[in-house]
Amino acid sequence: MTDVNWTKPAGWMASFFRQFFIQGSWNFRSMLGSGFAYCMIPLLRRRGLSGDALDEAVRSHMGTFNSHPYLVGIALGAVARMEDSGTDAETIEKFKRAIQGSLGGLGDLLIWGAWLPATILLALVLAWAGTPPWVPVGVFLILYNAGHLALRWWAYSQGLEYGKDVGVRIRGAELSRLAERAFSGGGVLLGILAGVFLVSHLVGEGAVVLWAFAGFAAFGLGLKFGHRALRSTTFVLVLVITLIMALGNA
Amino acid sequence: MSLSLALLGGLLALDATSVGQFMFSRPLVAGTLAGWLLGDAGLGLQVGAILELFHLAGVPAGGSRVPESGPASVVAVAVAMAAAGPAGLALGLVAGLAVSELGGMTVSWHRHMVARVLGRTDPRFMTAGKLAAVHISSVLMDFVRGAVVTAAGLVVGGWLSGFLASRWPLPYETTVALILIGASVHLGALLRGFGGWKNRRAVFLVGLVAGIVGAYL
Questions:
Q1: What angle do CA A43, A44, A50 make, to 5 degrees?
Q2: Contacts with A234 from chain B: Cβ below 8 Å
Q3: Mutual orientation of helices B196-216 and A175-197 as an angle, nearest 10°?
Q4: Does residue B68 sit in helix, strand or coil?
Q5: Is A192 exposed, middle or buried (0-12, 13-18, 19+ CB in 10 A)?
Q6: Per-residue pLDDT at B2
Q7: Residues sharing a CB contact under 8 Å with residue B73, sequence separation 6 or more, in sequence order
Q8: Pick from B36, B52, B62: which is nearest to A120 by CB?
């Protein structure tokens, strides 16, 4: 289990900052693998590795790996600690394979699925309320990145602190409960935005019932089919605009 | 000005994946930045907010190809400004959506290319120095890719808006209503992503009533 006398490995800060570039060489061969190895370089160098020994250690981290970029610090910190305590490469590779799926799924749910849309919806509500341009943009960037940076720091710290036992720790963190709260907040903001659109832009039109009905139907279509409906309906909208343009004022 | 916009597009492309992911590349932010560069941050925000509605429900999970919003927002705002009025909104949106798709394709192309570069190097001969070189080159290439996508979009969008803008027949209110009908599909998909009607109807309806009351006031 966790050794309370353990101190952070040298180079941990440089490795933490490299996290912000971890997706720089994202590719369809190793996904985040090369970026992960790139983030490990400062830690390996500070362990006194150089020349062939450094190259060999870097190569051992280049295997296929994927994760949500904000939560990759959990794996990065844990591997840093495992390296520091002399864990063999095979055990580290097994750990990475075991943890990557949950980091990806959890990050997608919490960040891409909940936190990002909820904070953007807040900014959109502010934008439609007629605030000056810097207000919605500023509120979104500050609020979103407060969560983003806190999560990155928390993830890396947890990895460093708990090493290979970090999986137990993140299960107890109940990040999915945070996502649930963001979903509810996002739901309210989405309702506000829909209400504003309905009153300000759809009901205000000449053929009131028709526009409002079209709005509800389109919303229902998205609700029923989800992501499957997005590309095709966007294509239809582009087609309609192009047709109107083609048939419009000569 | 086109050079500044292309450079902005390159930086925004970096923010989307390669560097930081601070979300400057979201249409709402990118559009406002482009509008500010062009002298009308308000229009930038308006176009960015509209384009945002069409990107809101997209989840860049794993290695899936998603439309790229940063460079597209810059092009959308520039086209909207060139065409002006309701035609600008319609043309800007179309340009933004088209460049988003094009950008998404070039992101996939970039990822395949990095994979090929890494694949060409015999794993036994990969060194820390080579890895750092590949990594940094990939970041620089992503910047250039974003700048080129933006520049191409600006050239084609500017050319099209020159003769298409005068053909738009609909007034401002109808144009916005038409766009919002399209965006409503995305909002519906987002509610599904939040847990669906069954789980979120209470909070959604509370928000809807608040939005309606707020808009009337």
A1: 140
A2: 54, 97, 182, 185-186
A3: 40
A4: coil
A5: buried
A6: 85
A7: B12, B25, B27, B30, B31, B34, B47, B48, B51, B96
A8: B52
Residue A3 has pLDDT above 70, yes or no: no
Compute the 3-state secondary structure of chain A and give helix, strand, coil in percent, each to the nearest 5.
80, 0, 20
Percentages helix, strand, coil for chain B (3-state, rounded to 5) are: 80, 0, 20
With tokens 């890494």, the residue in question is B118
Which residue in chain A is spatially nearest to B45 when comparing CA positions? A133
**Whole-model pTM?**
0.93
Q: Bigger pLDDT: A198 or B99?
A: B99
Quick: pLDDT tens for A185-208: 999 999 999 999 888 766 655 666
Average pLDDT of the residues of chain B: 93
For residue A70, the chain B residue with the least C-alpha distance is B21
Determine the angle formed by the axes of helices B128-164 and A33-46, rounding to 10 degrees. 140
Is the CB of residue A234 less than 8 Å away from at least one CB of chain B? yes
A232 CB neighbour count, 10 Å cutoff: 12
User: Which of the 8 DSSP states describes residue A65?
Assistant: B
The count of residues in chain B is 217
Give yes or no for B57 touching A (CB within 8 A).
Answer: yes
- Domain ranges within chain B, ordered by starting residue: 2-169
Evaluate whether A96 touches A32 at the Cβ level (below 8 Å). no
Rounded to 5 degrees, what angle do the CA atoms B2, B8, B14 make? 140
Residue A167's pLDDT is what?
84
**pLDDT band of A95, cuts 50, 70, 90:** very high
User: Domain map of chain A by residue range?
Assistant: 12-202, 203-250
Q: What percent of chain B has pLDDT over 70?
A: 99
User: Any CB–CB contact under 8 A between B132 and chain A?
Assistant: yes
Average pLDDT over residues A130-138: 95
The residue of chain B with its CA nearest to that of A29 is B115
User: If pLDDT is split at 50, 70 and 90, which confidence band does B64 have?
Assistant: confident
